[in-house]
Amino acid sequence: MSQLQKICKAHLVTILLAFFLASKANAQTTMANVASRNLISLNGKWKALSDPGAVGDWKKIWMEPKPQKKTDFFEYSFGGAPELNVPGDFNSQVCELAFYEGAVWYKKTATLFKKKNTRQFLYFGAVNYSADVYLNEEKLGSHEGGFTPFQFEITDKIKDGDNTIIVKTDNRRLENGIPGLGFDWLNYGGIIRDVKVIETPGTYIADYFIQLKKGSLNSVLGWVQLNGEHLNQKITVRIPELNIAYKTKADSSGYAKLEFLSKFKLWSPQNPKRYHVILQCATDSITDEIGFRSIETKGSEILLNKKPIFIKAVNIHEENPIKKARAFSLEDDRLLLNSAKELGCNLVRLAHYPHNEDMIKEAEKMGLMVWSELPIYQNIKFSDSLVPYKMQDMLQEMIARDKNRCSVVVWSLSNETYPGTPNRDKALIDLTEKCKAIDSTRLITHVINTQGYTNNSFHIWDTLYKYSDLIALNEYIGWYIPWQGKPSEVKWKIDFSNKPVFISEFGAEALYGNRNVPADQASYWSEEYQEQVYKNQIEMFKTIPNLRGVCPWLLFDYRSLGRMHPVYQKGYNRKGLISENGEKKKAWFIMNDYYTKKEE
Ligand code: GCU
Predict the structure, then answer these.
(1) What is the average per-residue pLDDT within 146-168?
(2) Are 438 and 397 a contacting pair, CB within 8 Å?
(3) I want to staple 267 with a disulfide (CB 3.0 to 4.6 A). Which of 179, 291, 378, 558 is the partner?
(4) Predicted confidence band of residue 15 (pLDDT cuts 50, 70, 90)
(5) Which residue puts its alpha carbon closest to atom 3 of ligand 1?
(6) What's the pLDDT tens digit per position in 317-371?
(7) What gap in Å lies between CA 124 and CA 126, rounded to an integer?
(8) DSSP 160
(9) pLDDT at 388 over 90
(10) How far apart are CA 127 and CA 104, in angstroms?
(11) pLDDT tens-digit readout, 100-155
(12) H or E, element range at 23
């Protein structure tokens, strides 16, 4: 490349980056603990226009021009448009949109009023994959990323009475998206989680972090961040049950460090204890229910509250199998989490993206640890100049929302990315450092499947393991890769052998009810074949040094367009232990028996 070409490329990258950052103008990371605020729900029926021709921007749909002269006409209108339920993916609501990947424009009229000493924010729980948000014909900003919340301050933009909110959602996959062009789940699009108007005082408690210091069972190390004009305020953090009333004072930036000791009843799966916490300053007061626990590794052990544990997990996609739709409600969450409890789990791996906030809160109440994961999945274009910025945004948004949820014990930063991809190692090592800097109290890991399996021996080697607290590997021996010997005789060579090993995915497919067919042939998708894979895997687990947890892929059969077999799959990945109709396969009983007998 000539010098001139290099200069032009550098300028182009700068322009792209400037455009990307500018287009994100105003899309803020959300305030902490939205649920504790005065909220105006905008859930319900929204007008919707699908825009497969992607002409809405060009036509400036958000302006909603009305015919002025008799000869005027416009080839779009929300008047007379169909309606979609919000929250909820659009694919499962309208059969013509079942596999749609494109733009859908939503409109809602909200009756709002300016209030003295009150600030107002427009909040979205998640929009997949991107959102351009307009209020009364003015663009508030954009957000990219289908699984984390965002907000816009609208205090000075609303008018008393009816306000028009128009959102362009677009679930087209992007080569430099996160995830990228290919992923093994249905690309549900639209406003998939709650929409609310949040009200706060003029100066309010915008953010806080209240958790035990890494490695401590009695010392809280955290902070509070105020936002507004009166920042040098005294702040009190109360935990009435512990007679704590910790007092501090915010600095000129509104920041105040927290550090106090107490004797906590520690949160655990057996005793999911949470405390009522009150945060107060002169202008604001909010409450939260916070659990306190310690999670760390020590050599090859995973320690929960200083005691070694074995993680009995299961993978879950955010899909209500019965509704065949993106899960978003408490009812959806409880269906999935109760099923994980019934299997005998103490942890749920929320694959492969942050699930809705209530999923994490419900897990915390039920005594389920949570593995939360970024959709940095398989084929990511790490060499694209925007991708590291997008990764960091998603990391910050994921942690901002859930950092006070003690159920979250693992931040997983990637799944099965390809070693050798340009910039992959550097981008993910940088992201790991950023994650550690934001939150050092949890385990941080990358999920890998680059291990070699030859001569019935595994060689675990990926560079990223050096930066992970866990050796988390996905292996499908017995399904994608036939056994090369007896499961009980598998040998292991693990380059970072002093760390806990976690089998983050294993399993096989079966169509529920497909029995009494040749049980030794994978191509029949029989329950017996899947059952045998589980028996063999459990046999192999005994050979794994430092094994500290396993996580079958996955709880329910789920939708994925690449799963095309017309008899056995019909658009479903059939690795579920349970069918999409809630029927337990034979393998479910093998796994349940293993967890029942396995020491925690
Ligand atoms: C991979 C991947 C999953 C995928 C699974 C499968 O390990 O992490 O997202 O669904 O394999 O092939 O079923």
Answers:
(1) 98
(2) no
(3) 291
(4) low
(5) 184
(6) 999 999 999 999 999 999 999 999 999 999 999 999 999 999 999 999 999 999 9
(7) 5
(8) S
(9) yes
(10) 11
(11) 999 999 999 999 999 999 999 999 999 999 999 999 999 999 999 999 999 999 99
(12) helix 3-23
- The H-or-E segment that residue 21 falls in is helix 3-23
Average pLDDT for the chain? 95
Mutate to test the pocket of ligand 1, among 187, 319, 473, 553 (most ligand atoms within 8 A of CB): 553
pLDDT at 539: 98
Cα-flanking dihedrals φ and ψ of residue 505, to 5°?
A: -155, 135
499, 469 Cβ separation under 8 angstroms: yes
* Sequence-distant (≥ 6) Cβ neighbours of residue 336 within 8 angstroms: 316, 320, 327, 348, 359, 555, 556
Q: Is the Cβ atom of 416 under 6 angstroms away from ligand 1?
A: yes
Length of the chain: 600
Q: In angstroms, what is the span from residue 184 Cα to ligand 1's centroid? A: 7
> Quick check: CB of 414 below 6 Å from ligand 1?
no
Helices (H), 227-288: none
Pull the structure tokens for residue 418. 């390809």
pTM for the full predicted model: 0.95
Q: Dig out the tokens for 529 from the structure.
A: 């074949």
Of the candidates 451, 448, 347, 354, the one whose C-alpha atom is nearest the C-alpha of residue 393 is 354
Q: Whose CA is nearest to atom 9 of ligand 1?
A: 184
What are the E-state strand segments in 184-333? 190-191, 195-201, 204-209, 219-227, 234-239, 244-249, 255-261, 275-281, 285-290, 295-298, 301-304, 307-308, 311-316, 319-320, 325-326
SS3 451: coil
Sequence letter at residue 432: T
Return d(Cα 232, Cα 244) in angstroms, integer. Answer: 22
pLDDT digits (tens, 9 = 90+) for 18-66: 655 555 556 888 999 999 999 999 999 999 999 999 999 999 999 999 9
Indicate whether residue 509 lines ligand 1 (CB < 6 A).
no
The token duo for 380 is 């990511």
Q: What is the DSSP letter of 338?
A: H
Q: For 221-278, what is each residue's pLDDT tens digit?
A: 999 999 999 999 999 999 999 999 999 999 999 999 999 999 999 999 999 999 999 9
Q: Which of 303, 250, 305 is nearest to 280 (CA)?
A: 250
Q: What's the Cα-to-Cα distance from 96 to each of 48, 99, 100, 184, 328, rounded to whole Å?
A: 13, 8, 8, 22, 22
Residues above pLDDT 90, as percent of the chain: 93
d(C-alpha 441, C-alpha 217), whole Å: 12
> 57: exposed, middle or buried (C-beta count within 10 Å: 0-12, 13-18, 19+)?
middle
Domains contained in the chain, CATH given: 25-67+76-201 (2.60.120.260), 213-292 (2.60.40.10), 297-597 (3.20.20.80)
Going by C-alpha positions, the residue among 535, 511, 542 that lies closest to residue 590 is 535
